[in-house]
Every structure is written in structure tokens, then in C-alpha cells.
Amino acid sequence: MAASAPDVPRQTRETVLDDLVGIASFLADPEGAARRLDRKWFWLGALLIASAISLAARVLIMPLLQHVLELRPIPANVTPEQFQRQIAISMIIQRVANYLLPLILACILAVQALILWASGSIAGVQAKFRSLFNLTSGCSVIPALAALAGAIVVRAKGEPSTVAELQPAFGLDMFLDESTNRFLLAFLGYFSVFEIWWIVMALLVLSAGFGVSKSKAGLVLAPLVILGLILHLVSAAFQR
């Protein structure tokens, strides 16, 4: 049986300023965030804010990334000139990604919203794609803040020597030695303070916004969390 209409009254009057201020509600005010899920253009302001924060993090980390790439041993059958050219191409790709960041982030958030829509349909939750896109866009500020915090920590520590050092620990992995199994580190690292914050807020906004229990909201959110964990574990397999 499909869930009934949400109990939280939605705001009808839209202003750019209110939408921008409302982004903060996705950090700690689920009821306030739920009132913005039906806004037509709320996602745009949230997307731009998250992109700006993520861009700041990338700008801080890019010189350190180039430093790490330059420290790697030159592969066999590759001349020093070719190696430097590969690094230059990698950095160009990073700069292009900076310009395309809002578009890339929009695609990621749209896929997240689509997954929530599919799992919600299976669970009997009546939700429009636009509302879920507003939800994923509003919550995207949290991982953007995580990226910025990570960049600041890395810059404060000095020049890193490995790619792993570009991703400081904010989860239980901070208590483990680097010699620990990489998949265990990745599993514990995925559930960082920021990821748990994102999960809790997304769950509470889903519950408040669509008038469903927290357990049902958890079921809707679970596929997205599991997919994120799988991708994180896969990336750990290629990390040096």
C-alpha cells in the first residue's frame, strides 16, 4: 500500500533568498528541509553551493595531487619525458573537471534521485523525481563539506607522498594502522562522520517529507548507501 501524503506542509512561495537560506536546513533541520522538497528550482541553488564548496576543495588539493603523481616511480618502458607528459595530461583532465563540476555533480545527484525513486516505488512510497532531486541536491552539501574538510586537513599536514594520504580519515579507520587490510580500511572509512551525517539527514528528510516511518525511509535509502559502499570498496582495490 502506498504511503499517504506527507504531514509536513510544503512552502508555496518561492524566492531565491529563501531557497539559499533553506539549504542550511539540510544540515540539521529535517522538518525545514522537507518543506522545500516541492520547490521548482531549489535544487539549482543547492547544486551551485555544493559545487562551489567542492571546487574550493579541489583547488586546495590539486597542487598536492600533482606532487603525489610526480613522486610515483617511472613505469618500465616509459621515458621521463613521457612520464611528465602523462602527469600534465592528468592535471589538464582535473582542470577540465573543475569547469564541468556542476554538470558532473548534477548527473550524480540525478542518478541518486532515480535510485531513490525506484526503491521508493518498490516500497510503496509516493514520491516525485523532482522532490527526490531536491533532497539529493540539498544533502549534497554534506559530502562537499567533507571534501573541503579533507583538503584543509591534508594541506595542514604538509606534502603527502601517496594518493591514500590525500584522503584523511574521518571514520573508525583513523584508529587503524596503514598496514591494515585495505578493504577493511575502506569499509570503516566509508562510514565516516560526514557519511553518517548524510545518511541520518537523508533518512529523516525522507521520513518527514513523504510521511513514512523512519524504518521505511531506511529501506528506501538502503540501496543508495549499499551502492556507495560497493563503489568505495572497488576504488580501494585500485588505490596505491
3D architecture notes:
The protein is an all-alpha fold and 240 residues long. The protein has one domain. Helices cover 70% and strands 0% of the residues. It has eleven helices and no strands. It has helices spanning 16-22, 25-28, 30-34, 42-71, 80-99, 101-123, 129-139, 141-157, 182-190, 193-210, 214-237. Helix 4 (42-71) packs across helix 7 (129-139), helix 8 (141-157) runs antiparallel to helix 10 (193-210) and helix 10 runs antiparallel to helix 11 (214-237). The longest helix has 30 residues, at 42-71. It is globular. The N and C termini lie far apart (48 Å). The model is unreliable at 1-12 (pLDDT under 50).
List keywords for this structure.
240 residues; mainly alpha; 11 helices; 70% helix; 0% strand; disordered N terminus
Annotate the secondary structure layout.
Blueprint: H1 16-22, H2 25-28, H3 30-34, H4 42-71, H5 80-99, H6 101-123, H7 129-139, H8 141-157, H9 182-190, H10 193-210, H11 214-237
Helix pairs in contact: 4-5, 4-6, 4-7, 4-8, 6-7, 6-11, 8-10, 9-11, 10-11
